Batch of 2 targets.
Target 1
Amino acid sequence: MKTILVTGGGGFIGSHLCEKLLEQEYKVICLDNFRTSKKRNIDELINNPNFRLIEADTRDVGVSNLPFSEKLDEIYDLASPASVTYIMEHPVEVATVNAIGTKNMLDIAKSMGAKFLFASTSEAYGDPKEHPQKESYWGNVNPIGARSGYDEGKRFGETLTMAYHREHGLDGKIVRIFNTYGPKSDPDDTRVIPQFVTNALRSKPLPIHGDGMQTRSFCYVSDMVDGIIKMMNSDQIGPINLGNPDEYKIIDVAKKIISLTSSTSKIEFVNRPPDDPSVRKPDISLAKQLLNWEPKIKLEEGLALTIEYFRSLL
Ligand code: NAD
C-alpha cells in the first residue's frame, strides 16, 4: 500500500484529491495549516483509518523534524494560498510557502526517494501575450506587481522542482492548474465562481471587474483531480497544463449563474484589479497526448453541483 503526503490536503482541490486517493486504498497523510480553508472539507475523511491529519505549516516541517514516521512513496505539494485577494494581502506568506515550504517538501521527497508533484498555476503565464497558453510559452509576469508573490512564488516552485530533478535525480512533476471550481471551495473565497455563486444565493450584487469582457476557462474539480493523479502516475516531468479549454467571458458567467440560481442579484461593475489577465485558456494538447486526459464535465453541469453545495452551506 502506497503512503502519500498531500500538502494543502484540507483545501478545496486537496480534500477532493485525498478522498480520491483513499478510494484507491492508499494511506494518505494530509498536512495543512487551514490558513485558507475550513476543516469541514475533511469531515468525511477524518475517521478513515488510512487518513491522518497533521496541522502544520510546510515552512516549518522538514527532514529534521518530520511529524510522521512513515516512508512516503509520493508527495503532492498543493499547500499555498490561491485566492486573489488573499495573495495580494499576504504576498510574503504566499511567496515563502512556494519557496521555503516547497523546498522543505522537496528535501523530504529526496530523502525518501518519493515522487513529487508541484501544483503550479496558469498565473505562471501572467497576463499572456499568447493565446491559448501552451507550456512552451514563458509568460508575461510582472515580477514586482501586486500578484507577484503568488505568480513568482509559483514560478520559483517550478524552478526548485526542476532543480531537484536535474541536480538530485528527483522524480519531480509540475502541473499548471487553470481555474478550477466545485464543491468545497470556500464561500468567502473571492475567486470568480465561489464569489458569483454565493453572492447570487445571498441576493448580493455580482462584482464584475472592468467591462467583464475578459475571458476565463473553468475546470470542474473531479476532472482536475483525475488529471493530477494521472500526472503523478505518468513518467512525465512537465510542466503540463491542466484545465478546461472552454472559454467564457466573465460577464456571461455572471449572467449564467444568476439564471441557474434564479437570483434577484444584479451585476455591479467595479475597477479591475492590477495585472488582471485579459484572456485565459489552456492549450491541453500535451495532457491529451501524454496523459490521455481531458475534462469531461461541462460548465452547466459543474455549476449545478457547485450551486447545490453552496446552497446546503448557506
Ligand atoms: P485552497 O486555498 O482551498 O487550498 C490550499 C490549501 O493549502 C488550504 O487548505 C490552505 O490552508 C493550505 N495551506 C496554505 N498555506 C499552507 C502552508 N504554509 N502549510 C500548510 N498548508 C497550507 O486552494 P485550492 O484552490 O485548493 O488550491 C490548491 C493548489 O492548487 C494551490 O497550490 C493553488 O495555488 C493551486 N491552484 C489552484 C487553482 C484553482 O483554480 N483552484 C488554480 C491554479 C492553481
Target 2
Amino acid sequence: MTAERIPLACVIGSPIAHSLSPRVHGHWLRRYGISGYYVPIELRHETLEEHVRKLPDFGFCGANVTLPFKETVLSFSDVITDRAALIGAANTLTFLRDGRIRADNTDGYGFIGNIRQSAPDWTAQQAPTMVLGAGGASRAVISSLLGEGAPEIWLVNRTRNRAEMLREHFGARVRVLEWNHAPQELSNVGTLVNTTSLGMRGQPELHFPLDAIKRGTLVTDIVYTPLETALLAAAAKKGCVVVDGLGMLLHQAVPGFETWFHKRPEVDEALRQAVLGQ
Ligand code: ATR
C-alpha cells in the first residue's frame, strides 16, 4: 500500500528569496488546514528544464514561475493555455498525471480580479484604457483588458518601438501614444494602468502629470512597494478610484492553489496582512 502523498508546490525563479508567493500560499495552507507545503526554489537556466521535469518525482503537483523564466518555460511545456500563448509567458505550471507539463498565465486574471474586488462597478467597456509600459506585465494587462471588452487601449511607452510591437501582436484595438502627449489625453480615459517599474522603491519616480484626469477614473499600479505609489496618491487627490497593486499578486495565485490543493482560496484582508508581514 502506498502512503498518501503530501501535496507540494513551489515558486521557481532566480533570485527567489524575496518572492512573496510562499507567504500567500503558506497563509492559505494554514487557513484551510491543508497538509501541504509551498517552497521557493532557485533554479538556473542551464538546468531549468531538467530540474523542472524532476519536480513531480519529489511530489510536486505544480509551480509558480517568476523572473527570469516566465518565457523560457513555454519552450518545454507540453500543454499551453490560450492565455499563456497570447501573453507569451507562463506563471503557473501544473504537472499532469501523465507526465506532461501544463503552462498557464494567471497574471491578467489577477489584474482583473484585483480591480473587480476593489471596484465592483468598474467596467473596461465604456471608455479607452491608458496603459503605461510595454514589457511582460503590460502584455498580461493588455490581453486581459481586451478579454474584458475594452474598446481601445492607448499604449504609452518610453521606447515607442516596443509599444508598436505590442500593437502588432494584439491588433487594431491597441493604439500607440507618445509619452509626452499622453497626459493631455487623460480626460478621455476610463482607466489608467502603470505597468512600468517606475515608482517602485529603489527605482526612479514615474513623472506623469494627472492634471487632465477626470474624477472617478480608475487608476491602478502594478507596483506594490510602496503600496501607495506617488501615482496612486496623486490620483486619489484628483478624486479617482484607486486600486493598489498588491491584490494582483494575491489574485494571480488563486487558480494555481485551487488546482494543486483542491480548494478555491479567498483573497481577503487577513491574507493582505499575512503577506505584508503585519
Ligand atoms: P516587466 O516584464 O516587469 O514588465 P520589462 O519587460 O523590463 O519588465 O518592462 C519594464 C517596463 O518599464 C518597460 O515598459 C520599460 O520601458 P522601455 O520599454 O522603454 O524600457 C519601463 N521602464 C523601465 N524603466 C523606465 C524608465 N526609467 N523610464 C521609462 N520607462 C521605464
